[in-house]
Amino acid sequence: VWALADIQPTNRGHEEAFEFAITEMNDNVPNIDLAIVAGDIVNETTEETFDWYLQTRNTSYIEEWYEIIGNHDLKTDMGKLFREKLREEVNYSIVKGNILFIFMSDSERGKATEISDETFEWWKDLVINNQDKIIVVTTHAPLEDSGIPFSSFTDRQVINSERFTDVLRDYQVDIWLSGHLHIPHAIMNNIVEKEKFEGTIFVHISSIRPELLGLKESESRVITFACASDKILIQVRNHEKGSFIPNHDRVFQLSKKYICNPEPSID
């Protein structure tokens, strides 16, 4: 899985960073099955920018892309162009083998991630009724109490996060992916495993967009599931260097083994 976030170009250099990341992955990182974009695809919601994103994305060899709406993707049109250009359903799930991926978009403008109570109840039912699966959740901002840096700040978290953390105390969610913060992966506690939430692994995805006059380089993550294994490898990809950062490799144990080719069910 290629996990990326916060492309949101404000100048040609930012556009080039995403274009280069696609080329760099094409040339150097084979066998990616799907890409997850954790919001803020654009900075301004214009048709031109969404078209640029799609044209760039479609030069990737990766065929399956799953995006959510971040706060900037709602900025002026409440997600209208996102729905027209990318995906009508903005809160959705997919199953790969025995992995359930759940995607939840921002529902309101503003720096914080707001998720409606209706979407929360949908998520809760999915989690409770799929405890036989590995569950991976993607939101734009992290949960409060995730331990991710700055997630204690109101405008850097999912509003009313306690709805979700109350569920996590009793039901297993293996991985929670989020972006929004733009902080480099080198900052401590970018990945946090929380035992009080049944061992959920909270993973921050840094921005594809370079920041701080280039001091923060273009970064993403590659997440590897291995058939018949309950181990997962999470790596940091630095696109400007064209390499993984070895001392950032992390291996975690999942709640169950990944069954990449499950037996077909018979009704």
Pick out its properties:
alpha/beta; 5 helices; 7-stranded mixed β-sheet; 267 residues
Brief characterization of the structure:
Helix content is 20%, strand content 22%. With 267 residues, the chain is α/β, with parallel strands linked by helices.
Query: Gyration radius, to the nearest Å?
Result: 17 Å
Q: Could you give a short account of the major beta sheet?
A: 7 strands, mixed
Please report the distance between the alpha carbons of the first and last residues: 31 Å
Oligomer status: single chain
Shape assignment:
globular
Order of helices and strands: EHEHEHEEHEHEEEEEEE
Note poorly predicted spans: none
> What structural class should be given to the helix and strand makeup?
alpha/beta
**Helical stretch tally:** 5
Give the percentage of residues in beta strands. 15-25%
The helix fraction, in percent, is: 10-25%
The chain-level mean pLDDT equals 94
Please give the number of β-strands. Answer: 13
What does the model show?
This protein is an alpha/beta fold and 267 residues long. Helix content is 20%, strand content 22%. Strands 1, 2, 3, 10, 11, 12 and 13 form a seven-stranded mixed β-sheet that branches. Strands 4-5-6-7-9-8 form a six-stranded mixed β-sheet, covered by helices on one side. Strand 2, helix 2 and strand 3 form a beta-alpha-beta unit. The chain is globular and about 45 Å long.
